[in-house]
Specification:
This protein is of the alpha+beta class. It contains 5 helices and 14 strands. Strands 7, 8, 10, 11, 12 and 14 form a 6-stranded antiparallel beta sheet that branches. Strands 3-4-5-6 form a 4-stranded mixed beta sheet. A two-stranded antiparallel ribbon has the order 1-2. The protein is globular.
Length: 270
């Protein structure tokens, strides 16, 4: 039997941060707490705007380059397993129950434990835990920098700039809070968002992070084992410009801002 209960959360305190994760399900027969994930096929997820064109794409095989569970699982490893690992760890959940579908038809369910997600994503549970707490330390530093720069309510947008290898942080003071608005992530005319004038009082920061493994800065995948040390060096820069490119693919085309450095310190986990 299935019983419906009010929303349930587990909370985790990491440094000065208090974060939560919603618990989707509990199995009384095993004592497992689970997160439930609906996973549309790759054809739909990479073309959401035209999802209806891909409803005929079905999962027919266990393995293979197309129409297979293997392809969907591989794509999960590449795109959402890092997020799943953090979410499950915050909620102290045992794993995730994944439902594969094409918005009209359900193809099957798969339970993936947190340990397996950690192994696929980070190589081991040990490495996953190290990176989780290192990330929480960096997140606290980012929030402290935001609150130091803007004391009142602020809308913060972060995204990764692949061309320059930095995290872009746009801070806009909130003067009239209209509440939550769902963002579907669909831009009708991307070119219109290539560049926009910064709102008054907004601050544009860039965050550069370098990872040091056993005393050496690393830029490529590496093996992380128990007993290894890892440090993250970070540096904030304020971009001196009244314009900001919003479309990451267009970032760097003739855009050369001036920088002012105001912080550079290491975060260590060993």
């Amino acid at each position: 039997s299935i019983s419906i209960t009010p929303e349930t959360f587990n909370f985790l305190k990491a440094g000065k941060l208090m974060i939560r994760s919603q618990i989707d399900a509990y199995d009384a027969t095993t004592g497992l707490t689970l997160d439930i994930k609906t996973r549309a096929t790759t054809k739909i997820r990479y073309d959401i705007k035209n999802y209806f064109k891909h409803k005929k794409y079905k999962l027919k095989y266990l393995q293979g380059l197309e129409e297979s569970y293997e392809k969907e699982f591989y794509d999960m490893i590449r795109t959402v397993f890092p997020k799943y690992s953090f979410q499950l760890r915050i909620g102290r959940m045992n794993g995730a129950l994944v439902m594969y579908h094409n918005t009209e038809e359900i193809y099957g369910y798969e339970y993936v434990s947190l340990d397996k997600i950690d192994e696929y994503t980070f190589g081991s549970v040990f490495a996953a835990e190290k990176y989780f707490y290192l990330t929480m330390s960096l997140a606290q530093i980012v929030f402290e920098e935001i609150t130091k720069r803007i004391s009142g309510p602020v809308h913060a947008t972060l995204w990764y700039n692949r061309l320059d290898g930095v995290i872009e942080i746009l801070l806009v003071p909130v003067t009239n809070d209209i509440g939550w608005k769902e963002n579907l992530g669909i831009i009708e005319n991307p070119d219109e968002y290539a560049e926009a004038i910064l709102p008054e009082g907004a601050i544009h920061l860039q965050l550069k992070i370098d990872v040091e493994h056993n005393g050496e800065i690393v830029y490529r995948p590496y093996n992380f084992s128990e007993g290894d040390s890892i440090r993250a060096f970070y540096e904030f820069k304020e971009v001196s410009s009244s314009y900001i490119p919003f479309e990451m693919a267009r970032w760097g085309d003739g855009y050369h801002p001036d920088f002012f450095t105001f912080k550079s310190n290491p975060v260590t986990l060993s």
